[in-house]
User: What shape does this take?
Amino acid sequence: MKSLVRFCFVVAVLGLSTASQMQAQSASDLAPGSTHLINPEDLVKILQSPKGEKPLVLNVGPHLLYMQAHIPGSEYIGAGSDSQGIELLRRRVKPLPHKTFIVLYCGCCPWSHCPNVLPAYNELHKAGFSNVKVLYIADNFGADWVYKGYPTIKGQ
Amino acid sequence: MRRAVLIVVAIILAAGIYEVGRRSSAHSKLGVPSAVVHSLAPDFSLQDLNGQPLALANYRGKVVLLDFWATWCAPCRDEIPHFVALQNEYREQGLQVIGISMDDGPKPVREFYQQFKMNYPVALGTEKLAEAYGGVLELPITFLIGRDGQVAAKYVGEVQMPVLEQEIKSLFPAK
Assistant: This one.
């Protein structure tokens, strides 16, 4: 009995440790300068280039901001900080091959304060998507995209 | 080996100093009036969180502090206690603070309203209203509207409270 309790304890500690390591890994994936990020100018080049694979661009930020201005061709999913938004993201990517090139973006807040991109990134990571980038928006979508003159459209 | 460690430490320190400088310069750039538009503030008619009508026109004759904010916006959250204090301090002189939340739904706003004991009306924003005020793509954005309904100042980013308070006082009638 004692050995069973000891075994369960070890398994639980290992499980917790692995989960926290995965969380830490995901957070470090999104540290400025990480290769899992893409800068606005690089995304614009990719989207405007006649050649090359085009990403599926998904907005995981607040809807009211998306309605005012968003990246042409991007799809609104829902806020990544919200369980409903994560569920919608899960449903949207379910039929896609795991190698699909996906770019997530929000732009609600300065990078370190954004509550949306990390949960959305973690969800795709957990679902096995291996070609996911997050658009690095240092301050907000207005300052780092719209007012820099990059293409936008309004509405749904 | 020691030299390598020193170099790494120096790089980390330099990066830290650069980042602090970048942030503070962005703050001072954003924390002062970025546009003073001497034009009539666009009117709006919304419902506040309690279902009561909230129309800007009803506050003509008062100095209005119109705050575009959201519960998910950290600098917005930092400003709210100051706005609550300003509302208390200058209510009698004719200050009216109005909050326009850019949240997608009322639930987090109601919770926040209770938690921060907000003492002024708050309504959920709309795309149309945001557009009327020049687009609200970065938060917070604060407008000061004079007693004549003209926009006296616009602040993008977290506002410097002493600057704001001075501007509010200047809009009250001279004693």
Chain A has a mean pLDDT of 89. The two ends of chain A are 60 Å apart (CA to CA). The longest strand of chain A covers residues 56-59. Helices of chain A lie at 2-29, 40-48, 63-68, 83-93, 117-126, 141-144.
